[in-house]
Write a structure and sequence with these properties.
With about 170 residues, the chain is mainly alpha-helical. The protein has a single domain, classed as Ferritin, core subunit, four-helix bundle (Ferritin), CATH 1.20.1260. The chain binds fe (ii) ion (2 copies). The site of one fe (ii) ion has 4 residues, from helix 5. One fe (ii) ion (FE2) binds next to helix 1 and helix 2.
Length: about 170
């Protein structure tokens, strides 16, 4: 793998670990304001983000590349209620989508077909991530300040269970 591409993969690993901790902080906040279901949903997403990072690590290992681990940015934030959290998630996922796209463009420009093909899973995953979050935002918008509706949404979010993502090209993840 060409050095700039390898470095860009490491930078993406750092971003996925940041994402994980960002979701963890939001999970704590949601738990503190009483939305246990949404707290659980964001905790599941925290686990998923760890898997995103780990599968990129596995991929670099498979390509015999060294991972450059970097300092993870401070994930703390301030929110004003549950809808604010999900709006913040959407903004974050949009930036991750952009970052994955840039990585795929670099892989393509480097003539690294293997890396480019591998990244297709991540590109498709981002469509799912943004779609899921938009769906929650839509529901929260309909609910507005209706406490019953908000509790129903919270219960719905609480039903999400963690499913280990299977990323083609890296075997089974840890
Ligand atoms: Fe991710
Ligand atoms: Fe996902």
């Amino acid at each position: 793998m060409k050095e700039p591409l390898s470095r860009a993969f490491s930078a993406q690993i750092n971003k996925e670990y940041f994402s994980a901790f960002f979701y963890l902080v939001m999970s704590d906040y949601l738990d503190a304001i009483g939305f246990k279901g949404a707290a659980s949903w964001t905790y599941v997403q925290y686990q998923e983000e760890l898997a995103h990072a780990q599968n990129l690590v596995h991929y670099l290992h498979a390509r015999n590349e060294n991972v450059k681990y970097m300092t993870i940015a401070d994930p703390s934030g301030e929110w004003n209620g549950i809808k604010d959290v999900f709006l913040s998630i959407l903004k974050h996922e949009e930036s991750v989508t952009e970052s994955i796209s840039e990585l795929a463009t670099l892989a393509m420009q480097s003539g690294d077909h293997a890396a480019y093909t591998f990244l297709h899973w991540y590109i498709a995953e981002q469509v799912e991530e943004e779609g899921n979050v938009q769906d929650v935002i839509d529901k929260l918008q309909i609910a507005e300040d209706n406490q019953n509706a908000l509790l129903t949404i919270d219960n719905l979010l609480g039903a999400r269970v963690y499913v280990e993502p299977i990323v083609p090209g890296v075997g089974t993840s840890i």
